[in-house]
């Protein structure tokens, strides 16, 4: 799942499916009724944030969209037997703020959604936060039961949590096949300090664990943010993220649950070449993702700064329940190094089994391009990183990234990412591994123009809107140019008619072949009868008929309008 700009430049949600080893054309996710024409604009807080598929053809996805009234809402999507249904608007808890204040962009914002996980088909949990009527932010849990999304509930907080100034959120969730789910996030304690929020449960029954003690070198206000959680079994989990030390350096956080009890947090030990965390601002560590294929055996990935101020990928492995010192990722041979300012990092990890994982991220090559990074682990041994292949239309100047991976078996993984094509556009790509061999990267096939896009695009050539559309100018030049955004390939024709002596007269025609979606110019040319009709008059009432015939053997589209030319 993700997002894209449709043919009219509006931000839409995107769903892409692979079945039988073949990636299909993406589909546009249908927002609930009452959505804005630009419902998933990121700057307005929109977009899909998570997806989970407990079975082939049965998935659930969550995100936010903007309504036509400029209010943000949560949206819940369900795929049943390979068919995505229209999104369902999230119903917030009863104590949600009644009249939230709009944020700077003019959108009323009262909720956030972070992640989703499904224990079985139709049984999922999504997490995030919302603004309560006390005008504080509370953590939120949303449950899907047997394919029906229930009203969101407020997540419990540890005893002694702040009442005034609360800013709680759940950032990650993972659900076991047993139906038990564990979520991790943050909340503000009674001293005003940011601590770990760890909840577990199912349905409408949830409990919260006491916040684990911060790492021994944490600041008195540790600013703890557990951003990823993974469970090998019910009650045996690991969560990773960040915290700060007294010098306000961000460091890697490691939390462990054993037998249902969370123990005190520890800080990730960095490789020997790491910049010191003993001076202000010299070190920033982020642990972004964790995977636990077996109890006591987990791997966390992220990044840190070395002594030369280069960003480096970081691996932290847990063996028999003990976290080992972090290891620097071995980058591809074409990576910049030394004082040339590397900017590498890992964002995601997926493990098919213990010792067989794939981590993904980015690094900087010798041409100072950002490239996707693939880091495989085979038989317990981490291999050197390799550059992710890109589709054949990729530009030589790149800002590519391998965003996420999913491994369903050893040697069978799929990667999604983004890249720049030779036009400079940012596109998505997919890359699949079969029996340990990577195939060719493929550009995501974006949806065809929707009926709404086609209708609005056709409407753009119904009436002149430019200042050049003046009767005298058209009469002297005998033509007029429409400039509009075509949303699909095909042929567009436009006819202008007027009435003279009670007879309908064709006064101008235009026709253009659209080879591909994009900016198009359609020239209207006056007929002899048209030039005669426009001569010696101050105003002319014009009727317009527009027709578009798509190249893909779809029915023609028609539109009509009228305007006055003066």
Strand segment count:
45
Report the β-strand fraction as a percent range.
over 45%
Radius of gyration equals: 28 Å
User: Which runs of at least 5 residues are low in confidence (pLDDT < 50)?
Assistant: none
Please state the structural category.
mainly beta
Order of the strands making up the biggest sheet = 40-43-42-41-44-45
- Average pLDDT for all residues: 92
Helical fraction equals: under 10%
Number of distinct helices: 3
* Top CATH class of the largest domain: Mainly Beta
Termini separation? 50 Å
Specify the CATH architecture of the largest domain.
Answer: 6 Propeller
Named CATH topology of the largest domain: Neuraminidase
Shape: elongated
What number of domains?
3
Question: What's the helix and strand layout?
Answer:
Blueprint: E1 2-5, E2 11-15, E3 18-19, E4 22-23, E5 27-28, E6 47-55, E7 58-66, E8 72-80, E9 83-84, E10 88-89, E11 111-120, E12 123-131, E13 137-145, E14 148-149, E15 153-154, E16 169-175, E17 181-188, E18 194-202, E19 205-208, E20 225-233, E21 236-244, E22 250-258, E23 261-262, E24 266-267, E25 286-294, E26 297-305, E27 311-319, E28 322-323, E29 327-328, E30 345-353, E31 356-364, E32 370-378, E33 381-382, E34 386-387, E35 401-409, E36 412-420, E37 426-434, E38 437-438, E39 442-443, H1 451-459, H2 471-477, E40 479-486, E41 490-500, E42 503-514, E43 518-526, H3 528-534, E44 540-550, E45 557-565
Antiparallel strand pairs: 1-2, 2-5, 3-4, 6-7, 7-8, 8-9, 8-10, 11-12, 12-13, 13-14, 13-15, 16-17, 17-18, 18-19, 20-21, 21-22, 22-23, 22-24, 25-26, 26-27, 27-28, 27-29, 30-31, 31-32, 32-33, 32-34, 35-36, 36-37, 37-38, 37-39, 40-43, 41-42, 41-44, 42-43, 44-45
């Amino acid at each position: 799942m993700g997002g894209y700009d449709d043919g009219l430049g509006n931000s839409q949600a995107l769903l892409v499916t692979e079945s039988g080893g073949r990636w299909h054309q993406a589909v546009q996710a249908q927002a609930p009724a009452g959505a804005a024409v630009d419902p998933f604009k990121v700057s307005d807080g929109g977009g899909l944030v998570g997806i989970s598929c407990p079975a082939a053809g049965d998935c659930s996805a969550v995100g936010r969209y903007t309504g036509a009234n400029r209010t943000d809402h949560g949206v819940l999507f369900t795929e049943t037997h390979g068919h995505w249904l229209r999104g369902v608007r999230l119903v917030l808890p009863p104590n949600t703020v009644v009249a939230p204040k709009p944020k700077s962009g003019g959108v009323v914002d009262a909720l956030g959604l972070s992640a989703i996980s499904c224990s079985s088909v139709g049984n999922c949990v999504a997490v995030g936060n919302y603004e309560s009527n006390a005008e504080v932010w509370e953590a939120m849990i949303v449950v899907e039961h047997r394919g029906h999304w229930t009203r969101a509930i407020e997540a419990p907080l540890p005893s002694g949590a702040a009442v005034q100034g609360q800013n709680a959120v759940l950032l990650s969730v993972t659900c076991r096949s047993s139906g038990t789910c564990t979520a991790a996030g943050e909340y503000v304690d009674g001293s005003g300090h940011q601590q770990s929020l760890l909840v577990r449960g199912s349905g409408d029954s949830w409990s919260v664990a006491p916040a684990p003690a911060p790492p021994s070198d944490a600041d008195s206000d540790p600013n703890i943010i557990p951003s990823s959680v993974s469970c090998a079994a019910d009650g045996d989990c690991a969560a990773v993220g960040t915290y700060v030390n007294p010098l306000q350096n961000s460091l890697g956080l490691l939390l462990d649950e054993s037998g249902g009890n969370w123990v005190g947090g520890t800080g990730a030990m960095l490789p020997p070449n790491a910049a010191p965390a003993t001076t202000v601002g010299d070190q920033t560590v982020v642990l972004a993702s964790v995977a636990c294929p077996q109890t006591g055996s987990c791997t966390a990935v992220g990044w840190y700064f070395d002594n030369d101020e280069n960003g480096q990928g970081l691996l932290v492995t847990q063996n028999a329940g003990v976290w080992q010192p972090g290891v620097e990722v071995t980058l591809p041979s074409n990576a910049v190094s030394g004082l040339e300012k590397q900017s590498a990092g890992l964002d995601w990890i997926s493990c098919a089994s213990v010792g067989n994982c794939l981590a993904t991220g980015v690094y900087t090559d010798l041409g100072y391009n950002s490239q996707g990074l693939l880091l495989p682990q085979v038989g317990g041994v981490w291999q050197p990183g390799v550059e992710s292949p890109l589709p054949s239309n990729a530009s030589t100047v790149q800002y590519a990234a391998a965003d996420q991976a999913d491994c369903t078996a050893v040697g069978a993984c799929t990667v999604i990412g983004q890249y720049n094509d030779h036009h400079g556009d940012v596109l998505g790509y997919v890359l699949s591994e079969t029996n340990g061999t990577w195939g060719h990267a493929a550009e995501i096939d974006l949806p065809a123009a929707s009926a709404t896009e086609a209708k609005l695009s056709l409407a753009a050539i119904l009436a002149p809107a430019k200042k050049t559309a003046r009767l005298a100018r058209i009469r002297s030049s005998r033509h007029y140019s429409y400039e509009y955004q075509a949303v699909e390939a095909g042929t567009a024709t436009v006819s202008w008619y007027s009435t003279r002596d009670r007879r309908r007269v064709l006064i101008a025609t235009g026709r253009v072949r659209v080879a591909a979606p994009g900016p198009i110019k359609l020239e209207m040319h006056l007929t002899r009868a048209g030039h005669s009709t426009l001569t010696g008059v101050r105003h002319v009432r014009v009727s317009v008929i527009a027709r578009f015939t798509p190249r893909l053997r779809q029915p023609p589209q028609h539109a009509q309008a009228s305007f006055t030319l003066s």
